[in-house]
Amino acid sequence: MLVITPKPLRFGRLACHKTDMIKLFGTDGVRGTANMHPMTAEMALRIGAAVGQFFKRDAKGVHRVVIGKDTRLSGYMFESALTAGLTSTGMNVLLLGPVPTPAVGLLTRSMRADLGVMISASHNRAIDNGIKFFGPDGFKLSDAVEAEIEALVAAGVEPIEASQIGRAKRVDDGRFRYIERVKSSFPRQTRLDGLKVVIDCANGAAHHVAPMTLWELGGTVIPVGNNPDGTNINEGCGSTHPQMAAETVVEHGADLGICLDGDADRVIILDETGRVADGDQIMALMAARWADESRLNDGTLVATVMSNLGLERFLHGRGLRLERTQVGDRYVVEAMQRGGWNLGGEQSGHIVMTDFATTGDGLMAGMQFLAAMASSGQSASALVRSFESVPQLLNNVRFQAGQTPLAAPKVQAVIASAEAELKGQGRLLIRKSGTEPLVRIMAECEDDQLLQRVVGEVVAAVEAAV
Fold first, then answer.
1. pLDDT digits (tens, 9 = 90+) for 228-254
2. Cβ-based neighbour number of residue 292 at 10 Å
3. Cα(159)–Cα(176) distance, rounded to whole angstroms?
4. Neighbour tally for 69: CB within 10 Å
5. Parallel, antiparallel, or unpaired: how do β-strands 276-277 and 267-270 relate?
6. Of the residues 74, 88, 122, 307, which is catalytic?
7. Alpha-carbon torsion 321, 322, 325, 329, what sign?
8. Per-residue pLDDT tens for 415-445?
9. Which of 108, 125, 277, 312 is the most exposed place for a label (fewest CB within 10 A)?
10. How far apart are the C-alpha atoms of 184 and 276, rounded to whole Å?
């Protein structure tokens, strides 16, 4: 008689072939097109099992993880797959449903969870999705921890015995806890009575909490981009497409517009004329006000290499300092923690206020702008231009998997020539995106013709290489 002894199931090398050694994590978690590597249900299950094993090092006690998501259709699939992987290692899963990314950071810490997970591709297309992780302190994971998790995914994880499988349950009040936290960052006794606010929710995770927060504080709220259907997140709305919100501001005679992205960790502000203020202008206003109120730690603002030279000059003129980091709000936060600084962000609209939150919070930053309006009595247009920006030009070139256009000798030669021309007049920054297959080419220069020419030459060289 033939006896077959089955091997234990491993969430390891199931039909993965050559993908095991591909780096999973970018600048902000794992991201890609849904149902394509690495954003498949199978990979999400394996990642869930790996992070569950990593954070469940202590076999004693209760271990829990909170999971939030934005409004993408694929979020249901990834939520289920991650839950399966996590519970297979004994982790108990608390499902928050659609909530902003900063709410996950907040609730991970306040609910004493071992881990927080946000399912979102932020400002990207609806067909994309991503997985972001927060440690028990509510902050995003470091590169070193992500590398250990990648190694566990590649090696495979042994599921625990059936009697120790974790449980999963829905948490219904997560968004209300977040609303109260956002309101607590707003000055006491201050209300928004008399202010008419357009809030663009990007058909994303903040479609409920953002209008509700503003309404509870007394504002007249005009919501747009607040009818998600699973496929329209960031589509013609939100911080990357503010035209609709700008038109709504003018049409309704609103005092300002607040535009969030799909997971509400970014913001841009629109003044009463519909003019846009990016993250640099918001940070400049906040840094100056906080410094005047002796709230800006060590007189320092943290921003990335992408922030405009005009911001740096503005801060220096006020006796303040700009600390630059590589691109990614996670690196901004890490620098803030190392230096003990409490304000930082990105030109794209991530604004991090560690006095209140552990990651970029678009709604909370918008509330700080409203607080400035309420306390000063000034209009949005008087507050959105703290400095004159140095002309900056950014172009993106998309490439295919496996291509390395920046390594091409002709591209390197053109870049060297462009840097030589800009020396003493501006700067050139070229990098691969950490969230999309894009080469980002950015330059700053007060000579507009030179700026256009050098960026055009680099773009042409990269396009030829791909």
1. 999 999 999 999 999 999 999 999 999
2. 10
3. 35
4. 26
5. antiparallel
6. 122
7. positive
8. 999 999 998 888 999 998 877 789 999 999 9
9. 125
10. 27
